[in-house]
Write a structure and sequence with these properties.
The protein folds into two domains: 160 residues, no CATH class; 177 residues, no CATH class. Helix content is 41%, strand content 10%. It is built from 15 helices and eight strands. α5 packs across α6, α9 packs across α12 and α11 packs across α12. It is elongated, with a radius of gyration of 25 Å.
Length: 420
């Protein structure tokens, strides 16, 4: 009787890019981990210096390319935030999970994919080829996880791979009623489901290894270290924008509320269509951070709104009612007075104008009602034409400096005081 052999194959990249570029390869030199063959896992206590440049190897695209938003947003102020003000102490480990164990942990939510990550975008052939790579013993990219306070592991990078595995084991592919059977793979596996695989292949898949880099922030309650590590890992394939990273790391009741506020009809008419990169949610977060804690702002915009979102992750600082009361009436009166032209000059949305106008109006509404909408419109037109206001709001360096922020708010509030 002939001996059973594995199907032959050519060693090719099933994902269209170079294989073997695990997330670990993109960690800075100060946090390099060496596997211990005896333990199967090595934990390195390291000081992560965010200023150290990260390597930028090719990587498999875990998502489809981001579509460009139609609005030409003013993003010059983001360039002022690249300097990081501190170092972080973190524990980093390299762990090998067997695939069967990964599936169990996903089902039990010991490994957790946040609701607000990008949706599952792989086609069935992409997912099938990833499963095939595991069956053939080909190297596959590692995943990136972060440890939560309750010891769950949150998925930062790798959800397309993890969901593909889970769908195959569950027998249902996303968005399809029929069973998940492999497609576009070697003839030995074509049309096979998890249940129909030969026993030897099912065992091989169960015992296949998926490597993970796990980061545990030490003495870092707001998870700034994870934010900046992921930002530096996020150098190839589909780039996640800052608010997408926050939605993953700081998931919770506040994040859900931002999602709901972002659907407000007045805000949607002002901002335009939903932003694929959550820039619209970031604008709301930025408003709330400055409205409630603007006096604590020093210089770094990313740090400031990261810390605010983390500190209010489960609405422990400002309640849902307080946040809705600050945002909804403000956007409502702005929409009534200015319509969808608000915060735009030459068809460009300026975050600095949005920030100063909305905060000035919100603070005024907390003190007294604004009755004359025509006067409010005239105030806005005078403000955006004011040379001093424009000098600290548009096309200058250090847009996000504390001095320029305070000056913008001061000018807006001073002019608004004359409105009935």
């Amino acid at each position: 009787m002939p001996r059973s052999t594995s199907p032959t194959f050519s060693l090719e990249d099933r994902f269209g890019v170079k294989l073997g570029c695990a997330c670990l390869d993109r960690l800075p030199a100060s946090a390099i981990i060496y596997d211990n063959p005896d333990l199967g896992k090595t934990t390195t206590m390291s000081t992560f210096d965010p200023k150290e440049p990260a390597s930028t190897p090719d990587r498999p695209a875990d998502e489809e390319p981001v579509t460009q938003i139609s609005e030409n947003l003013e993003e010059e102020d983001e360039d002022d935030d690249d300097t990081i003000t501190s170092k972080f102490s973190i524990a980093v480990s390299r762990t090998d999970f067997d695939v069967e164990g990964i599936v169990r942990r996903l089902r039990d939510e010991e490994i957790y994919i946040p609701d607000f990550q990008r949706s599952y975008v792989w086609k069935i052939k992409q997912a099938s080829r990833f499963i095939e790579s595991l069956l053939l013993g080909l190297p596959v990219p590692s995943i990136f996880l972060a440890k939560e306070p309750d010891n769950r592991l949150i998925v930062i990078d790798g959800q397309q791979r993890l969901r593909s595995i889970q769908y195959f084991y569950d027998g249902k592919f996303s968005g399809r009623r029929t069973a998940f059977s492999l497609q576009g793979v070697h003839a030995e596996f074509e049309r096979e489901t998890y249940k129909s695989l030969k026993d030897e292949y099912r065992r091989k898949l169960n015992n296949s290894v998926l490597s993970a880099t796990v980061v545990d922030p030490l003495q870092d309650s707001n998870k700034s270290s994870i934010y900046y590590i992921f930002e530096r890992l996020n150098t190839g394939g589909t780039l996640l924008k800052p608010q997408e990273i926050r939605a993953c790391i700081y998931h919770g009741e506040f994040n859900k509320l931002l999602h709901e506020l972002n659907e407000n009809e007045n805000w949607r008419d002002i901002y335009g269509k939903m932003d694929n990169n959550k820039k619209d949610q970031e604008m709301i977060l930025r408003f709330l951070a400055f409205y409630f804690q603007g006096n604590d702002y020093k210089r770094n915009m990313k740090d400031f709104i990261n810390q605010y979102m983390s500190s209010n992750r489960n609405l422990q600082k400002q309640s849902e009612g307080e946040i809705r009361k600050a945002f909804i009436p403000t956007i409502s009166i702005i929409h009534k007075s200015l319509g969808n032209k608000a915060f735009r000059l030459e068809n460009r949305f300026f975050p600095t104008i949005f920030e100063s106008v909305s905060i000035a109006i919100a603070r005024r509404l907390a003190q007294s009602e604004i009755k004359n909408l025509e006067e409010l419109k005239s105030w806005y037109e005078s403000l955006v034409a004011d040379p001093e206001f424009r000098s600290v709001s548009m096309k200058i360096r250090n847009l996000t400096s504390k001095e320029n922020f305070q000056k913008r708010i001061e000018i807006a509030a001073s002019l608004l005081a004359e409105v009935e």
